[in-house]
Amino acid sequence: MVSIREVAKLAQVSPATVSRVINGTAKVDDEKKERVLRVISETGFVPNEVARSLFKKSAKIIGLILPSIKNPFFTQMASAIEKTADASGYRLVLCNTGNSPDKELSALQMLTSMNADGIILTTSNEQIHEYIENCKIPVIITDRRLAIDGACYVHSDHYEGGRQAAEHLIDCGCKSIVCIKGPQDISSARARYEGYSKVCNEKNIKLQTVDCDYDFNAGLEVTEKILKKFPDVDGIVACNDIVAISVYKVLHKKGIKVPEDIQLIGFDNISLSELLTPELTTIAQPIEEIGAKAAELIINRDEELTEREFTFETELIIRETTKLKGDR
Question: Which of 17, 82, 150, 279 has the fewest CB neighbours in a 10 Å radius?
Answer without folding.
Answer: 150
